[in-house]
Specification:
Catalytic activity: 4,4-dimethyl-5alpha-cholesta-8,24-dien-3beta-ol + NADP(+) = 4,4-dimethyl-5alpha-cholesta-8,14,24-trien-3beta-ol + NADPH + H(+)
Order of helices and strands: HEHHEEHHHEEHHHHEEHHHHHHEEHHHH
Membrane topology: Multi-pass membrane protein
Protein name: Delta(14)-sterol reductase ERG24
Number of helices: 20
Structural class: mainly alpha
Number of strands: 9
EC number: 1.3.1.70
Organism: Phycomyces blakesleeanus (strain ATCC 8743b / DSM 1359 / FGSC 10004 / NBRC 33097 / NRRL 1555)
Radius of gyration: 23 Å
Strand content: 5-15%
Low-confidence stretches: 1-40
Length: 479
């Protein structure tokens, strides 16, 4: 597919649709809007009507929200400290610690030493990384594009410059550390667990900040995060689009710190392997290359995230802040971490299998998303003009052929195949590197059900008719 021009990328965000994303995944109904532009919003807005009380809970309600807030950070810390060159046995180590605690074999002084041994400089390093990325995102020039129309009638403007911001930050970092050799990446590898704790702390700071901020002034809240229950609203996100001036916190968080941090950690792990072996194994090359390719694709198509459910309907709270500041970089680099600690080379057939699975997954993922974006913006384009669709009462079109005639979330299938290929590159000596593909499968199924529920609410009978034509949810012929 030829690179998109700035005009084409700008046009991608001119149409409103519901959707959702994790990492760079696009979702939502496969639709193209035909609704004409509305009149300018009134000068005085009734925020009581714009922000109705949320009566429907997701994710198990307040109890589920509490468990997510408490358990997920513990999982990150467990994998950070429970995986090293001795072995990738986080659950075994957890059981050993729990057994000792129950039996009273741990002294409080020893438990307290585990807390005080954390290196606070890791928080400084992590905060510096995010601050640099935010600074260059603000300072570097970029296309200004409009997001989808909000329910108050406005459209927010966004600066699209992820690639130039990352390129500048990379250049400045390399210039700053030249002469130090590989000291910095080796330090990152040695202190990964401490950095993981720092990312947990940072995500809580951001989450608390935006939650408190949402109570000051007149804010457009998310329809799903205004229950009045502090735990649930904190987790799901109360304000829809918190901003500091023109700097949109949710848009910045959605792709940049998590995905860029993921690649940075991968590179540090590869350099650690190089120092230990004097070379980089083919398995590490495949993992780092394919995951960097995935991240580059997401940043190159940055405007696509503006039509996803994360941006258009979800509030910005702990779920998105923790997911992008902590979970994505710290858990998604698991394959590179494993290969740094347990390096191995793949035989030619194994290499071919990984490459084929990656390419097939990417073809499905990018082909489906590109087809949807083209249909949204230019239904008469020769590549999509013969697609069949359902014209809904809301004014949008639901595609019933092409990629989107195979399943309602065919892009999820391609996304998961790529995730599986990265895990396969780690071999079969440990199940832990496969945690990502297992977790991601559960996440995509849950996201599909959540998205379909929102589409049912939006399209009503038209969605039922669409589901009768496109029967499969994610995997054609299977699910």
């Amino acid at each position: 597919m030829p690179p998109k021009t700035r005009r084409e990328r700008k046009a991608e965000v001119a149409v409103s649709t519901t959707g959702g994303s994790t990492r760079a995944t696009q979702s939502g109904p496969v639709s193209s809007s035909t609704v004409p532009a509305q009149q300018a919003p009134p000068v005085t807005l009734d925020y009581k009507k714009l922000n109705p009380k949320t009566t429907h809970y997701e994710f198990g309600g307040p109890i589920g929200a509490f468990l997510m807030i408490t358990i997920l950070p513990c999982v990150v810390i467990l994998f950070a400290f429970g995986c090293d060159n001795i072995g990738y046995t986080p659950f075994h180590r957890l059981w050993a610690i729990a057994s000792d605690l129950i039996a009273g074999r741990f002294e409080w002084e020893f438990l307290w030493s585990l807390v005080t041994s954390w290196k606070a400089v890791a928080l400084l390093w992590y905060a510096g990384f995010v601050a640099q990325l935010a600074t260059f995102s603000i300072a570097m020039p970029g296309d200004t594009v409009e997001g989808t129309r909000l329910r108050d009638g406005t459209r927010l403007s966004y600066k699209v410059n992820a690639l130039s911001a990352v390129q500048t930050m990379t250049t400045m970092t390399l210039m700053s550390v030249r002469g130090q050799g590989l000291k910095l990446p080796l330090w990152v590898h040695a202190n990964f667990a401490h950095i993981a704790v720092a990312s947990v702390i940072f995500s809580f700071i951001v989450s608390i900040g935006v939650y408190v901020y949402s109570f000051f002034g007149k804010r457009l809240l998310s329809l799903g995060g205004n229950t009045g229950n502090h735990i649930y609203d904190f987790m799901i996100g109360r304000e829809l689009n918190p901003r500091i001036g023109n700097f949109d916190l949710k848009f910045f968080t959605e792709l940049r710190p998590g995905l860029v941090g993921w690649v940075v950690l991968n590179i540090c792990m590869a350099l650690k392997q190089y120092v230990d072996l004097g070379r980089v194994t083919n398995s590490m090359i495949l993992v780092v290359l394919f995951q960097a390719w995935y991240v580059f694709d997401a940043l190159w198509n940055e405007t696509s995230v503006l039509t996803t459910m994360d941006i258009t309907s979800d509030g910005f709270g702990f779920m998105l802040a923790f997911g992008n500041f902590c979970w994505v970089p710290m858990m998604y680099c698991l394959q590179a971490r494993y290969l740094a600690d347990f390096p191995h080379d793949l035989n030619i057939w194994h290499v071919c299998a990984v490459i084929i699975l990656q390419c097939v997954g990417y073809r499905i993922f990018r082909g489906a998303n590109s087809q949807k974006n083209t249909f949204r913006n230019n239904p008469e384009n020769p590549s999509v003009k013969d697609l069949t669709y359902i014209q809904t009462k809301s004014g949008t079109r639901l595609i019933t052929s092409g990629w989107w005639g195979m399943s309602r979330h065919i892009n999820y299938f391609g996304d998961w195949l790529m995730a599986l290929s990265w895990c396969l590159a780690c071999g079969f000596d440990s199940i832990i590197p496969y945690f990502y593909s297992i977790y991601f499968l559960i996440l995509l199924v849950h996201r599909q059900r959540r998205d379909d529920s929102k589409c049912k609410e939006k399209y009503g009978e038209d969605w039922d008719k669409y589901c009768e034509i496109v029967k499969y949810r994610i995997v054609p012929g299977v699910y």
